[in-house]
């Protein structure tokens, strides 16, 4: 196994300072914002919807990531060795980062089904099914994070640091299935929802305002998903390419890029809280982000389909 042992202490110190600049505000804002969001979605809201289930699970994932952030700074600063504490924090991190991505994907898919297929959505969507899907994903990711060190089979010395330049094909598989496939799903669903909402823009000023708000929520969530997570996963692919090429001269810069982009990805914990705010603010008008519009479309379809026999409704 080839190793690149050269290190740049100045660059490492700069990365630690950058992490402090990013993580201190993220943790300081993220903790109270997530606590408020928990109170709103768990206690204040009365009706259980698919969005409420997904949001609560997203808050749980974000809270665990916030808990891990101080350890990330400490491990980076002191080149912390791999021990039980390191493995525990790695398990937390590599469970909740993918979980956050997958829940956002589920939210986008749920919106797409609700808007594009309002009749079938009555059958396909339910809070219980959403909870079951989230529970299944939690179990799979917890098992994966526990087996991750055995699957990767690397003899690394420091926590959250890959020293060897041996290509890790399991990591490549994880990057593709844990982000790039969900990214394609989120982009497709969000674009389709926005197009459908614009096409069916209501004539009533109040209903038009609701639809515009819904479009704004979908657009903001899509931008946050891309801006936060895409740079990290591109740099991880770059690291894989460097490992394949055995280019030790590029390793220091690529490691730094991964850690910097990781800060951006982890800041999603705080940005999600603002998405909670938009969701909660519009909850009375559209409890599943925009159910008023869904109900409106459902009624329109019902009235249109009431003219011929109801065989079309049963499909």
Mean pLDDT: 80
Q: Distance between termini?
A: 58 Å
- By CATH, the topology is Rhopdopsin 7-helix transmembrane proteins
Order of helices and strands: HHHHHHHHHH
Q: How many beta strands in the DSSP annotation?
A: 0
The CATH C-level name is Mainly Alpha
Q: Characterize the main sheet.
A: none
**Would you identify the regions where 5 or more consecutive residues have pLDDT less than 50?**
282-315
What portion of the residues fall into strands of 2 or more residues? under 5%
Number of domains: 1
Count of alpha and pi helical runs: 10
Written account of the structure:
The chain has helices at 9-44, 50-78, 84-116, 118-124, 127-152, 169-199, 205-245, 251-266, 268-281, 291-305. It is mainly alpha-helical. The chain has a single domain, classed as Up-down Bundle (Rhopdopsin 7-helix transmembrane proteins), CATH 1.20.1070. Helix 1 (9-44) packs parallel to helix 8 (251-266) and helix 6 (169-199) packs antiparallel against helix 7 (205-245). It is elongated, with a radius of gyration of 22 Å. The termini are far apart.
Annotation keywords:
Rhopdopsin 7-helix transmembrane proteins, 315 residues, mainly alpha, 79% helix, disordered C terminus, 0% strand
Helices, strands, pairings?
Blueprint: H1 9-44, H2 50-78, H3 84-116, H4 118-124, H5 127-152, H6 169-199, H7 205-245, H8 251-266, H9 268-281, H10 291-305
């Amino acid at each position: 196994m080839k190793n690149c042992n050269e290190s740049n202490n100045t660059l490492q110190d700069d990365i630690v300072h950058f992490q402090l600049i990013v993580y201190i505000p993220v943790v300081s804002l993220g903790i109270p914002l997530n606590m408020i969001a928990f109170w709103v979605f768990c206690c204040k809201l009365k009706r259980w919807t698919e969005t409420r289930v997904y949001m609560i699970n997203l808050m749980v994932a974000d809270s665990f990531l916030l808990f891990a952030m101080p350890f990330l700074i400490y491990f980076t600063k002191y080149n912390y060795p791999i021990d039980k504490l390191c493995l525990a924090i790695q398990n937390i991190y590599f469970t909740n980062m993918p979980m956050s991505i997958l829940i956002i994907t589920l939210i986008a898919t749920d919106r797409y089904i609700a808007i594009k297929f309002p009749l079938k959505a009555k059958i396909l969507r339910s809070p219980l099914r959403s909870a079951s899907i989230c529970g299944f994903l939690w179990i799979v990711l917890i098992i994966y994070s526990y087996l991750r060190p055995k699957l990767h089979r690397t003899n690394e010395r420091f926590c959250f640091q890959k020293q060897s330049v041996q290509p890790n094909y399991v990591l490549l598989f994880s990057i593709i299935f844990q982000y790039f496939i969900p990214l394609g799903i989120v982009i497709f669903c969000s674009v389709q929802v926005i197009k459908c909402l614009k096409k069916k823009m209501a004539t009533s000023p109040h209903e038009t305002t609701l639809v515009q708000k819904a479009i704004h929520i979908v657009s903001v969530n899509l931008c946050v998903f891309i801006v936060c997570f895409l740079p990290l996963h591109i740099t991880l692919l770059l690291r894989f390419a460097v490992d394949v090429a055995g280019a030790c001269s590029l390793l220091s810069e690529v490691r730094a890029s991964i850690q910097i982009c990781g800060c951006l990805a982890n800041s999603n914990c705080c940005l999600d809280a603002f998405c909670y705010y938009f969701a909660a603010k519009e909850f009375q008008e559209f409890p599943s982000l925009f159910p008023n519009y869904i109900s409106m479309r459902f009624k329109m379809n019902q009235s249109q389909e009431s003219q011929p026999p109801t065989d079309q409704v049963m499909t």
